[in-house]
Design brief:
Elements: H1 13-31, H2 37-41, H3 51-70, H4 95-115, E1 122-124, E2 136-138, H5 139-165, H6 169-176
Helix pairs in contact: 1-3, 1-4, 1-5, 3-4, 3-5
């Protein structure tokens, strides 16, 4: 853990889950700190991942899952033909626009999680071969899944950023806070 997540207020499970999700989103946001769109779009490691693509992907996936939980269609529907576009900027997109979109998604996620009657409320999983037929999950599961998904990609972002210019997560936290590391 690079930043500290304060303990939740007694009994505030929703707040705790949302705080850990925000902490992981912060790792991805910091990974693009000080970079141009061109730098953030580059792929300096053996992976096809770029920092700009990770920013975009995490926001798209979070929006999709919250829409699913709400029983609404996702803002962007991806399939085999365009899945690659969720990992890179396309015409007219910038890192700034994707960060702003991510902020909107985060606000809607928080609003939704805080508004459901219970974290035990469930919703149907999509009809995909990797999910059990007729499967249902809780809003708690959704929060934990988003934390896991975001943390996985925050780790990717750490590696991509360090491959790009040597900046580590600790250095980026210090830079964000206006100080220096080490």
């Amino acid at each position: 853990m690079v930043t500290h997540v304060p303990a939740e207020a007694r009994g505030d499970e929703r707040g705790a889950l949302l705080s850990f999700l925000a902490e992981q989103r912060g790792g991805i946001r910091r990974a693009v700190l000080g970079l141009s769109d061109e730098q953030a779009g580059s792929r300096p490691s053996a992976s096809e991942l770029s920092l700009a693509g990770l920013v975009k992907h995490v926001a798209e996936v979070e929006q999709m899952w919250v829409s699913l939980a709400k029983g609404e269609p996702p803002a962007v529907v991806r399939n085999e033909s365009d899945w690659h576009e969720c990992f890179r900027l396309v015409e007219g997109e910038t890192v700034a626009s994707q960060l702003a979109y991510g902020d909107e998604v985060a606000a809607r996620t928080e609003e939704f999680v805080r508004s459901v009657p219970s974290l035990d409320d469930t919703f149907a999983l999509p009809d995909q071969p990797w999910f059990p037929p007729g499967g249902r999950v809780s809003v708690r599961w959704l929060c934990l899944h988003l934390i896991r998904e975001t943390a996985r990609h925050a780790g990717h972002a750490d590696i991509v950023r360090e491959s790009l210019d040597g900046a580590t997560a600790f250095e980026l936290v210090a830079k964000e806070q206006g100080s220096s590391w080490g």
